[in-house]
Design a protein that fits this description.
Layout lengths: L28 H9 L6 E7 L2 E8 L1 E3 L4 E2 L6 E2 L4 H14 L9 H4 L5 H4 L3 H5 L18 H10 L14 H15 L3 H13 L19 E3 L2 E4 L22 E2 L1 H13 L5 H7 L4 E2 L7 E2 L4 E4 L5 E8 L4 E7 L7 E7 L3 H15 L3
Antiparallel strand pairs: 1-2, 1-14, 3-4, 5-8, 6-7, 9-10, 10-11, 11-12, 12-13, 13-14
Length: about 350
């Protein structure tokens, strides 16, 4: 099905609240976070980290209702458009390694591209300003790489490249094609070698991870089992190119914490490259309070500190990942994922952030 728009701060309703001078201490914080979800029927996984420390992680409810398998911190979920931050990081890793530039144009990679698309830059693809439409088709509808390229280059642009912002899954799948061309490796394989392994991620990907069947959460639609993402017409090397590169990666709360730490400590990208990842290139909201970087939405908390976040959904699974990159007090990270609903992930995120930043 077409994915619903659960992206970044819009999921929570805007920039985050002020962190007071005396936030809950590291000993008291897990208890307060636990209390915020006590008595709820939440089904999913939550994780909170502060500074260098993983403060709290826990699974709630059932990942598989029919088999009575409960969620744990190691349950794998479809994280939807959080996939885009991996694609963006991979492009910047290739630039960092001298293999490409974000100012490269599509014409350099697709000589047969028509005139209206030949000048589109990788920067425009990364920032959703290329003028490409949002979707190329349903996630589960099979589309080969060759057909995806042909279809994308043939279709009419929504607007002139660089003239506006419109979220585009197609653009990020096109970036995945370019990653394959430049690296000489399949998309997932390159991410695994260049990003995931150095960061210590062992449970993130499409097909390369050998997950036990019981480790992957089941999705539900109107109370009925929808199934697992990797059972929806995926090929041996991953999903359709309607989805590849823009969504559909499976991951765990534990791996998302490791990913946050790898970015924070410069394990996979240099500080100069990270600055490009988080640069607020284009306004997403009319008042300019939320911008888009490369695979991240970027805004400021009420105390003026930088926040980067993203949401993800395929209409069955819902995820939210928010990182307060406070240069004074150190980063705070919150990850929430569920197989219930958009409203659930929004409320849980709001309730937990009220504990993290009271007042």
């Amino acid at each position: 099905m077409l994915r619903s728009l659960l992206f970044c701060a819009v999921l929570i309703g805007g920039p985050g609240p002020v962190a007071p001078p005396h936030a809950p201490g590291p000993t008291d914080l897990p208890r307060r976070l636990e209390a915020a979800l006590a008595g709820t029927d939440f089904a999913g996984v939550v994780l909170v980290g502060r500074g260098d420390s993983l403060v709290w992680q826990r699974g709630y409810g059932q990942a598989d209702r029919e088999r009575h398998i409960r969620n744990t911190a190691s349950t794998a979920y479809d994280i939807g458009s959080l996939t885009k931050q991996f694609t963006a990081a991979a492009v910047l890793a290739l630039e960092q390694d001298g293999k490409l530039s974000v100012q490269d144009s599509l014409g350099q990679y697709f000589p047969a591209a028509p005139a209206d698309k030949r000048g589109i830059t990788l920067h425009q693809l990364l920032t959703h300003t290329a003028g490409l439409r949002e979707y190329s088709g349903r996630d589960e509808q099979w589309l080969s790489r060759k057909d995806f390229i042909r279809q994308t280059l043939r279709r009419k642009l929504v607007f002139a490249p660089g003239s506006a912002y419109q979220y585009s899954n197609v653009g990020y799948s096109l970036l995945a094609v370019i990653i394959e061309q430049v690296s000489g490796q399949p998309y997932e394989q390159y991410l695994n070698r260049r990003l995931f392994q150095p960061a210590g991620l062992t449970s993130t990907g499409y097909r390369l991870v050998n997950w036990p069947d019981s480790a992957i959460a089941v999705g539900y639609v109107n109370g009925r089992p929808w199934g697992k993402p990797n059972s929806k017409g995926w090929a041996p090397d991953g999903p359709s190119w309607n989805l590849r590169g823009n969504g559909g990666v499976l991951s765990t709360a534990q791996d998302m914490w490791l990913w946050h730490r790898a970015l924070t400590t410069g394990q996979v990208l240099t500080p100069v490259t990270l600055a490009k990842l988080y640069q607020p290139y284009v306004a997403k909201t009319p008042n300019g309070s939320i911008s888009y970087g490369y695979g991240w939405s970027v805004y400021q908390s009420k105390r003026g500190t930088p926040v980067v976040s993203h949401g993800g959904s395929n209409g069955v699974f819902f995820a939210h990942f928010v990182r307060y990159l406070d240069p004074r007090d150190g980063p705070t990270v919150l990850f929430v994922v569920t197989n219930q609903s958009q409203d659930v992930v929004r409320k849980v995120s709001q309730d937990l952030m009220a504990v993290l930043f009271p007042g």
